[in-house]
Amino acid sequence: MGAGHSHEPGETLPPAPPDLRRIVTMIIVPLVVATLIGLIVLWPRGPSPQQASDTTQRLHGEIVSATPTCPREVPAQPGGDCGTAQVRIGEQVVDAVVPTGPSAPVVGVGDDVVLIASVDAEGGQRYAVVDHDRWGWLLALVALFAAAVIAFARWRGVASLVGLVVSFAVLLVFILPAIVRGEPPLAVAIVGSAAIMFAVIYLTHGVSVGTSMALLGTLAALVLTGLLGLLTTNLLHLTGSGSDEAAILANVLAGVDLRGLLLAGIIIGTLGVLDDVAITQTALVGELSLADPTLSARQLYRSAIRVGRSHVASVVNTIILAYAGASLPLMLLLVTAGTGTRDVLSTQVMAAEIVRGVVGTIGLITAVPITTALAAWAVARSHRHRADHPHRHPEPDAA
């Protein structure tokens, strides 16, 4: 792909002079080392806290036959005329009950389902269908998603998928286990987010001064987001409690820092959008410099920031609507209860959602000028070096 048509920071920014690469390396390497130290210090060690003993077991099977759903006032009973199903689990076929109610699964012959096996009063096994088993269709959907990304973006799409795998690996192997074992959620989220950013940005967009500028802008915005989140949760006296999930966590994980968990969620939720904005602004500065190499750092910044404002204006609406959509059932519940708008918005749960949206959006806004300024400075410095050394061949651009 030609440089004039590329949207990768490492390809659109001019080759960086040696002194600029040294400066960037002196900044990036300590940050990588600090992230590695944070991973080592906060790495989850020891056994996971044990939950209370449970005699139930989750199984997977296929519906062989089923009776009609029971009326709401009639409970399903094993062997009854309604609300029962025969389920094949491996080579065994068992009788199971199918619960009734608005949220109960509606099953038919051939459906893959999830069952709960428990011990009844007589010491025998009792089976109940609790949900559909969606694993196969989820794998098919993920495969379709991967195929679409690779078909459109080709090798760059493969790199982005590898970055996505790394993100989930850090989340599942480090962030969640560390929080479960009692490490401070805010520190875990910052270290984990930094590790994700180093891996994802460099894997997806290559190692260069341009991607390093985007990375520095993202990390700076993440730190500001964390500090602002800490300030707002203190001012609004938010504890992270008030939701059903928080109540369950407080019982399952004694001593979990719910307020820190709220802050960690804000940081991780903002991460992906910050990456997008930072890379876009860095690539935009590079494209402007290719179109007119005589532009100064100030001119590059002013031109790129105008586009950045339009980008932020559209993304802000996207972020707020995404949070509002996720909170829609809760808002309906509060409004149905006859609660006024002021009281609805100032509840612990709704205030926490507002803080998520507002703080995340402010973090996004700060990423634009920071990243644009860093990229403009790097481009202007590269052009000055080329003007001062017109006969020197630039070395490959690498951070």
From TrEMBL:
<keyword id="KW-1133">Transmembrane helix</keyword>
<dbReference type="Pfam" id="PF07907">
    <property type="entry name" value="YibE_F"/>
</dbReference>
<keyword id="KW-0812">Transmembrane</keyword>
<feature type="transmembrane region" description="Helical">
    <location>
        <begin position="135"/>
        <end position="153"/>
    </location>
</feature>
<dbReference type="InterPro" id="IPR012507">
    <property type="entry name" value="YibE_F"/>
</dbReference>
<feature type="transmembrane region" description="Helical">
    <location>
        <begin position="248"/>
        <end position="274"/>
    </location>
</feature>
<feature type="transmembrane region" description="Helical">
    <location>
        <begin position="23"/>
        <end position="43"/>
    </location>
</feature>
<feature type="transmembrane region" description="Helical">
    <location>
        <begin position="215"/>
        <end position="236"/>
    </location>
</feature>
<feature type="transmembrane region" description="Helical">
    <location>
        <begin position="312"/>
        <end position="334"/>
    </location>
</feature>
<feature type="transmembrane region" description="Helical">
    <location>
        <begin position="160"/>
        <end position="180"/>
    </location>
</feature>
<keyword id="KW-0472">Membrane</keyword>
<feature type="transmembrane region" description="Helical">
    <location>
        <begin position="354"/>
        <end position="380"/>
    </location>
</feature>
<feature type="transmembrane region" description="Helical">
    <location>
        <begin position="186"/>
        <end position="203"/>
    </location>
</feature>
<protein>
    <submittedName>
        <fullName>YibE/F family protein</fullName>
    </submittedName>
</protein>
